[in-house]
C-alpha cells in the first residue's frame, strides 16, 4: 500500500505522487488508503508550506479502477465505503491552510477530475485531456466532482461536462477556468514546482490562509465571512513574517518619497 502514493518533503515542499502508472493511476483499494494516509500526513506536518500533486506514468488520474471494482467490489456499499476513504484525503487537501499545485499531465477523467480540483492551482500539458465520463459505465460523479465542478466552471458548463461523453482539450480547460496554465507536455512538472517554490519563497503562510478563506467561504454567511476575514488579517498582522515585510515595505516607500522630494 505504501508504494501506491509517494510522499517526499524537501525544503518545505511536500510532493505527493500517484504511483499506479500501469493503471493510469486509477484508484483501487491500495491507492485509496495510501491517498488518505499520505494527504493527511502532508497537510499535518509543520515543515510543509506547499504541496505539489503529480503522478507517475503517462496520465494524471483515470478515476476509479473499473476492473478492480468489477472483480473485488461485491456491492454498492463497498464502493460507498471506498469513496469515503478517498474523501478523507480530498478534505485534507481542500480544507487545509496549505496551498496545493497540481501537475496534471496526460489524461484526467472520472474521479481524477475531483483529485485535480483538490489543487488550488493546476498546470496541464498542451496534449492534456480532462473529462467526467462517469455515465459511460452507468455511474454518477464522486470524489468531490459534484461538490467542486460547478464552483470552478459554473453550473451550466459543469452540466455540459457531466452530461456528455466529452474530454476537454487543454485550451478548453484553460478557457473554462478549470486549470491555471497550459505548458509544453514535458514542462508540466517543472512549471508546477516553480509555482510551489514561488509560494515558499514568499509569504507562504499568508498564501495558505488566503486559500483557506476562499475554500471555506461556502460554509459561512456573508457577515460571518467578513468577520473571519477581519480575524484572519489581524492574526496575520501579528506574525513575525508580516511584521518584517510590512517594515520593509514602509522603509522602501519612505525612501521613494524622499527621493521624489529631493
UniProtKB/TrEMBL annotation:
<comment type="similarity">
    <text>Belongs to the enoyl-CoA hydratase/isomerase family.</text>
</comment>
<dbReference type="InterPro" id="IPR051683">
    <property type="entry name" value="Enoyl-CoA_Hydratase/Isomerase"/>
</dbReference>
<keyword id="KW-0413">Isomerase</keyword>
<protein>
    <submittedName>
        <fullName>2-(1,2-epoxy-1,2-dihydrophenyl)acetyl-CoA isomerase</fullName>
        <ecNumber>5.3.3.18</ecNumber>
    </submittedName>
</protein>
<dbReference type="GO" id="GO:0016853">
    <property type="term" value="F:isomerase activity"/>
</dbReference>
<dbReference type="InterPro" id="IPR001753">
    <property type="entry name" value="Enoyl-CoA_hydra/iso"/>
</dbReference>
<dbReference type="InterPro" id="IPR029045">
    <property type="entry name" value="ClpP/crotonase-like_dom_sf"/>
</dbReference>
<dbReference type="GO" id="GO:0008300">
    <property type="term" value="P:isoprenoid catabolic process"/>
</dbReference>
<dbReference type="Pfam" id="PF00378">
    <property type="entry name" value="ECH_1"/>
</dbReference>
Amino acid at each position: 500500500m505504501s508504494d501506491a502514493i509517494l510522499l517526499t518533503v524537501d525544503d518545505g515542499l511536500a510532493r505527493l505522487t500517484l504511483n499506479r502508472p500501469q493503471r493510469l493511476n486509477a484508484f483501487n483499494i491500495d491507492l485509496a488508503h495510501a491517498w488518505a494516509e499520505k494527504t493527511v500526513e502532508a497537510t499535518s506536518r509543520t515543515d510543509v508550506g506547499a504541496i505539489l500533486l503529480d503522478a507517475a506514468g503517462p496520465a494524471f488520474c483515470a478515476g476509479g479502477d473499473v476492473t478492480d471494482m468489477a472483480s473485488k467490489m461485491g456491492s454498492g456499499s463497498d464502493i460507498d465505503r471506498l469513496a469515503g476513504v478517498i474523501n478523507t484525503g480530498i478534505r485534507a487537501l481542500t480544507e487545509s491552510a496549505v496551498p496545493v499545485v497540481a501537475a496534471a499531465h496526460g489524461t484526467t477523467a472520472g474521479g481524477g477530475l475531483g483529485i485535480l480540483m483538490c489543487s488550488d492551482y493546476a498546470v496541464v500539458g498542451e496534449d492534456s485531456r480532462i473529462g467526467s465520463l462517469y455515465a459511460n459505465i452507468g455511474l454518477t460523479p464522486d470524489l468531490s466532482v459534484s461538490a467542486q465542478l460547478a464552483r470552478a466552471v459554473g453550473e451550466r458548463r459543469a452540466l455540459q461536462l457531466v452530461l456528455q461523453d466529452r474530454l476537454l482539450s487543454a485550451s478548453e480547460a484553460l478557457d473554462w477556468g478549470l486549470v491555471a496554465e497550459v505548458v509544453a507536455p514535458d514542462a508540466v512538472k517543472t512549471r508546477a514546482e516553480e509555482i510551489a517554490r514561488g509560494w515558499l519563497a514568499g509569504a507562504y503562510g499568508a498564501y495558505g490562509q488566503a486559500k483557506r478563506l476562499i475554500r471555506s467561504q461556502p460554509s459561512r454567511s456573508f457577515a460571518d465571512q467578513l468577520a473571519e476575514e477581519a480575524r484572519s488579517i489581524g492574526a496575520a498582522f501579528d506574525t513575525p513574517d508580516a511584521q518584517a515585510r510590512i517594515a520593509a515595505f514602509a522603509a522602501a516607500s519612505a525612501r521613494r518619497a524622499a527621493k521624489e522630494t529631493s
